[in-house]
Design brief:
479 residues, single chain, 3 domains, alpha/beta
């Protein structure tokens, strides 16, 4: 073994350690950029170590270079072109790409080592019992993640309805797909020796997994998408970890396990934030057409008061405490920088400004934190729901910018509502609520928001950026 080859285990260990520190950095907005850079460095170290290890047996470098160039170009273009509003869809595609890559690697191992050179032996006989069975898991979880992520992308991007699509007998279909696909894969790994049959069974496992991914995600409504995104992220990590066992790659096992575990933890956090179990998210069909906005079941609005930017500025003129509640409408309008300008002006006028962040606001976990960080909003001003809710009773003005479901009082006051019991931001306790929204249309949960009818609510029907800019202009004139 050459001196260069002897460094491979050390490089793998260094990569694993860097992945852990990178993931740690991603847990805070302030350190997220550094964490992302550390994780990228960890991946680079792992790739270099793999190339050094492969060089001992010889390999065709040209295809690796083609992959690096093509993938690098796609990533670079996406990083520049994709808007922050499209980041949830991009994350969904990232999850799907990771799952698809794991499935393809596992399938390639079956083809190269079992079908072509296996000598008529079973998959477990050629690869070993652990690697043979994890090959099945890698194809199963990876393909499921790919198709499920594509459906999530279509829902998030508006190319498919965000409402649940409830197939008749879907639970039975899912059970058959899960048990049938795994049974085929395990039987093939343990018993099948004929090369053509091994290929057929591998195709059936991948096809069944792809169908399962679609079947699992289409019944999930748009309001549950943050949970789905984090769960699919976990799936992609589990698929990568399973592929690590197939390839006997410790760094892939570790990094995949990190992604899988962190994704599961984040999924649980999202479920707690919505007061829902994971089973309800996956099988409940949240957001169906028969959902209602409250106990009465009426989706019609009573008197709703519409105000102008000038009137909103007059209210803010004497405010001592102001809380911004960001939502997906802020992301769509790219209003984060304008909101920051308004917040700066209010602070110059002596007001205390903070931001109330709901864990599931937007379309992916941490969506609002990312947007506000892009506008250089001080991290100390971003307060989580449990911290900001007690303060809202003593707040002069709350400005809700494009949020809906996360400020809906039905979660606390309407037992008949599908979101009843979900923790929300209790903005109605403030002296005045300025609600910036384009129309009375419901949010992703598809239900009525009674906050629009409250006496202390000022509805400002306008694009978020235009509305905030209008308030900013009017407030400057009052100076």
């Amino acid at each position: 073994m050459s001196l260069l080859q002897s460094t491979v285990p050390v490089l793998y260990l260094l990569s694993a350690v860097l992945f852990i520190f990178g993931l740690k950095g991603l847990t805070r907005v302030r350190s997220a950029q550094r964490g992302n850079a550390i994780s990228a460095l960890a991946m680079l170290v792992a790739v270099v170590a793999t190339l050094i290890e492969m060089s001992e047996d010889g390999f065709d470098l040209q295809w690796i270079l083609v992959g690096l160039v093509v993938g690098g170009l796609i990533g670079a273009v996406a990083a520049v072109k994709v808007q922050m509003t499209a980041m949830p869809e991009m994350v969904a595609l990232f999850n799907g790409s990771g799952g698809g890559a794991s499935a393809l690697v596992a399938a390639s191992i079956v083809w190269s080592q079992v079908v072509e050179t296996g000598g008529g032996e079973t998959t477990t006989a050629v690869l070993g019992s652990a690697s043979g069975l994890t090959t099945v898991l890698s194809m199963f979880i990876g393909a499921l993640t790919l198709s499920g992520s594509v459906v999530a992308y279509l829902k998030l991007s508006g190319k498919m309805s965000g409402k649940p699509i409830l197939l008749p007998g879907r639970h039975a279909i899912n059970a058959i797909l899960i048990l049938g696909t795994l049974a085929l894969g395990i039987y093939s790994a343990l018993e099948v020796t004929d090369a053509d049959t091994v290929v057929l069974f591998a195709i059936l496992v991948i096809a069944g997994s792809l169908a399962l991914g679609v079947s699992l995600v289409i019944p999930i409504g748009g309001a549950d998408m943050p949970v789905v995104i984090s769960l699919l992220n976990s799936y992609s990590g589990l698929a990568a970890s399973a592929t690590g066992f197939v390839l006997e790659s410790n760094v892939l096992i570790i990094s995949g396990a990190l992604v899988g575990a962190s994704g599961l933890i984040l999924t649980q956090i999202m479920c707690v934030a919505m007061n829902r179990t994971l089973a309800h998210v996956l099988f409940g069909g949240f957001g169906t057409a028969d959902s209602t906005g409250g106990a009465s079941g009426s989706d019609e609005y009573g008197p709703v008061r519409s105000f102008s930017a000038e009137e909103a500025a007059l209210v803010l003129d004497g405010a001592e405490t102001v809380v911004f509640i960001p939502g997906y409408g802020l992301a769509v309008a790219q209003a984060q920088h304008t909101v920051r300008e308004l917040a700066d002006l209010l602070e110059k006028r002596g007001a205390k400004v903070t931001y109330g962040i709901h864990p599931v606001a937007g379309r992916m976990p941490g969506h609002m934190n990312v947007l506000l960080a892009e506008a250089d909003v001080p991290y100390e001003q971003l307060l989580e729901m449990d911290v900001i809710n007690p303060e809202l009773k003593h707040t002069d003005v709350v400005i809700v910018v494009g949020a809906n479901d996360v400020v809906n009082p039905a979660a606390e006051k309407s037992p008949g509502s599908p979101i009843y019991g979900m923790p929300v931001l209790e903005v109605w306790n403030a002296a005045t609520v300025i609600m910036i929204k384009r129309s009375l249309s419901p949010g992703f949960a598809g239900i009525k928001n009674e906050l629009f009818e409250y006496q202390n609510t000022m509805m400002l029907f306008e694009d978020a950026k235009k509305a905030v800019q209008g308030i900013l202009t009017e407030l400057k004139e009052l100076a």
